[in-house]
Amino acid sequence: MTIGWNKTPPGRIETDMRLRTRFEQLALPHLDAAYTLAFWLVRSRADAQDIVQEAYLRALRAFDTVHGPDIKPWLLTIVRNVAYRFLSNKRRGNNVIPIEDAFLPRNGDASDGSMPASDDPSPEILLIDAEQSSLALAALASLPPLHREVLVLREVQDMSYADIAQTLGAPLGTVMSRLSRARAELRARYAIIVEKEGRDAV
Q1: How big is the CA angle at 162 (ends 158 and 164), to the nearest 5 degrees?
Q2: pTM score
């Protein structure tokens, strides 16, 4: 019985092995970032793992088209695309909110990013302290996917606006306005959750 890869010319095998090694060197350090983004989009650990696995396989197949050592935005773009495809497929059988409805106001809440500054903890502080604050995590989890992703990329992954724009395939101005709306909505939802927790504790 002949193994299929033996038919591949030796030079091609060496090239493929070098490409795979290079991919592992550049992509594996971003595995946690990929999983974090996938998890906050689909809200399921098992599904996030499957999404990351599929995304990394796709990235490996397309890796020879990438130039430069910083592949994080490119890699997270693939993770994002796979995650949204998963959500779209899931929506066909369930009542998941469509992506295009993500910015619609809910319960009369404004989400245009025009809220005045307040003395409440900033989203940055909420996310920095997220490990100790189930309330902050609950507020983040309650946001629409488009708001969750931009907050995770900026506040958790600490990505630049330019890298976020590249990852989302959106203009820089769109990223900044989307982040402003996401921060405002996070503050509002956090305040509602804190107030509810306070009432329930009485």
Answers
A1: 55
A2: 0.71
